[in-house]
């Protein structure tokens, strides 16, 4: 099978889709056109002509919509997005949005959430647009929550919190980290992650520059989980809070180095800690 064959199939499908005949119903012509477009889309896919494959699958989906075959159209738009993703992430997002529109109208929110999560992933990894990724993951989290898919909802919500902090939206990050932590208190499978959520939320509190709020937050985390006060994460938060209160950069740096030696700090935490370090003493110097 060649690209020439795919082009011929598309031309045949275009002609079929726009034809008028006394002998065939419109549904019949759209059905035949959809089959031809789908076949052409698969040939293009095998030839790694990703844009042409996506375009052709979208044409097939439009035929299916004209026949009222909404579920099939949603699946075809998803197939289009898989081809587009190889060459045109923005087109992949548009195809997924078309599928999601159908899925939400059909009340299929679990499936819609999965593809909304896919959109978040494209914005995150392909387009490096954290603002749009955050919005997509937040919508996915809400839909998963509505379908009682708690673990999937939390996974997306943690993405939202992570990106919010990277964008300097610390209050939003705190809300999401604390929300997931609260929901995980009575879940034995998720309880081991509490200290990580509390640490991240605590760092965001400190990064806001509101020391009183940060102290109150750490106390609250200790009340929420009685084991937290004995963790290295809690002791780390308390030590860097003391350094911030004392405007002591050396004490802050020593606390970070000590923690990092036993628990390697990832890039996200390192960035937040650098923000905190850069803010030490600024408030007092303004007085």
Automatic annotation (TrEMBL):
Give a yes or no for keyword Transmembrane helix in this entry: no
- Membrane topology term: Peripheral membrane protein
Q: Fetch the InterPro entries from UniProt.
A: NSF_attach, TPR-like_helical_dom_sf
Where does this polypeptide localize?
Answer: Membrane
Superkingdom of the organism of origin: Eukaryota
| GO terms, molecular function | soluble NSF attachment protein activity; syntaxin binding
Q: Which keywords, in A-to-Z order, does the entry hold?
A: ER-Golgi transport, Membrane, Protein transport, Transport
Report which residue ranges the record marks as coiled coil: none
GO cellular component terms, A-Z: SNARE complex; vacuolar membrane
Supply the PANTHER family for this chain. Answer: ALPHA-SOLUBLE NSF ATTACHMENT PROTEIN, SOLUBLE NSF ATTACHMENT PROTEIN SNAP
Role description: Required for vesicular transport between the endoplasmic reticulum and the Golgi apparatus.
Q: Which family does it belong to?
A: Belongs to the SNAP family.
Q: What protein name is recorded for this chain? A: Soluble NSF attachment protein
